[in-house]
Amino acid sequence: MHILVPVKRVVDHNVKVRVRGDGTAVETAGVKMSLNPFDEVAIEQAVRLREQGLATRVTACTVGPAIAQDVLRTAIAMGADAAVLVASDDVPEPLGVARLLAALVRREKADLVLCGKQAIDGDLGATGPMLAALLDWPQAVSVSRLALVGPGLELACDADGGTERLALPLPAVLAVDLRLCEPRHITLPAMMKAKRAQLATLAAADLAPSAAPQVRVVGVAEPATRAPGLRMDGLPALIDRLREMPAFQPTR
Fold first, then answer.
1. CA dihedral 215, 219, 39, 211 (to 10 degrees)
2. H-assigned helices in the chain
3. Model pLDDT for residues 130-165, shown as the tens digit of each residue
4. Three-state SS at 93
5. pLDDT digits over 47-86, tens only?
6. What integer pLDDT is reported at residue 71 of this predicted model?
7. What is the separation, in whole angstroms, between the first and last Cα of the chain?
């Protein structure tokens, strides 16, 4: 079984995000970037399946400029067998990424796609489901447990009403949650080996024709600053304060 793991380069989760001065996007110049945490879990799960003899090959891939090779090398250091950069000057919106990944899945003859359920920059969670729709494959999102049983998969997925138990045939697209597994610590020898690894590069235009953007960013701004809290001297003082608030004033 060949597992394809799409990954994304994002602002490191320990970094405080800042908006560019022109208000068009998040500032990334001079900011520490890293592998999206949800995708890191997907890589770990794929490598574990290969180590258990349930998969034969794990390929990581990403869409973006050449600088995005660093997250591919992180994936190789974690145990991925190969990595593919789909070269694009800009990272397309989720539908564009899904179209490129669908072409790559067919090219690589992958049997299973493991991806993070969302990226921590946009938090859309759209690429996985769109990819499944384009491939016409079964899908599951928020996967927190995964097991290969016979010719298919048995999954546990977090849902609003609790945990769903699903059985899916292969091939399939799975969008995994952070609870699925704990990523391994990368050793220095593994990282040095990953730095010497050969990465395949494909032009985005050679995989799928570019489409007109479906979304236009109007502006990006910091969240409004929250007012400081008030400490009240007892319940009566709190009730009097609430009565003074506009939301509790009688309407006329």
1. 20
2. 37-51, 69-78, 94-108, 127-135, 188-196, 204-207, 235-244
3. 999 999 999 999 999 999 988 889 999 988 888 999
4. coil
5. 999 999 999 999 999 999 999 999 999 999 999 999 999 9
6. 94
7. 69
For 202-238, the pLDDT digits (tens) are: 998 888 887 777 888 888 888 888 888 888 889 998 8
Dist CA 230 CA 144 (whole Å):
40
Distance CA 37, CA 150 (A): 30
The answer to whether 6 and 149 are in contact (CB under 8 A) is: no
Q: Would you give the DSSP letter of residue 185?
A: P
CB 138 within 8 A of CB 80: no
Q: Largest Cα–Cα distance of the chain, in whole Å?
A: 74
Evaluate whether 176 touches 45 at the Cβ level (below 8 Å).
Answer: yes
Query: For residue 85, what are the β-bridge partners?
Result: 62, 201
Residue 174 has pLDDT above 90, yes or no: yes
CB-side neighbour CA atoms (13 Å) of 7: 34
Tokens of 154: 């048995």
Superfamily of domain 2-207: HUPs (3.40.50.620)
Helices 127-135 and 94-108 cross at an angle (nearest 10°) of 50
The closest alpha carbon to 51, from 184, 242, 156, belongs to 184
SS3 for 24-78 is CCECCCCCCEEECHHHHHHHHHHHHHHHCCCCCEEEEEEEECHHHHHHHHHHHHH
